[in-house]
Design a protein that fits this description.
Blueprint: H1 9-14, H2 17-25, H3 38-59, H4 65-90, H5 95-100, E1 106-112, E2 119-125
Antiparallel strand pairs: 1-2
Helix pairs in contact: 3-4
Length: about 130
Amino acid sequence: MLVVPTEKHSRFFSNSFQILFSTNLCCHDKLQDKGITWLCLFGIITWRLWKNRNLFIFQNINWTAYEIIKTSLSWAQHFEPFLIGVQSIASNSKIRHHLVDNWVHLLSDGVVARDTGNASAGGVVR
């Protein structure tokens, strides 16, 4: 609710999970006066939510929605210029070849608290 414009709330919150992610990860629109794209901010917010869930489960640390958004905006503003530089380098390298073909990339992470046995895992498929 803090980052999605009011006029887009109904569409954003009523779509299926798959449509929500695919639509937001394809949106390269620049955010006004922030110098970042929605794609970058959405990805960082998603990652930050997952990390904060683990902080709460394993360390009983709870961030507010405002803290998550503020931190995500800061990270996006620092990361976006780096991302643009990496994309220009990747377009001239062999890495680009794998992104065009029928390759699937799986990135995953997990954690277990030894004392309680609580565990959490997540992943991204590209």
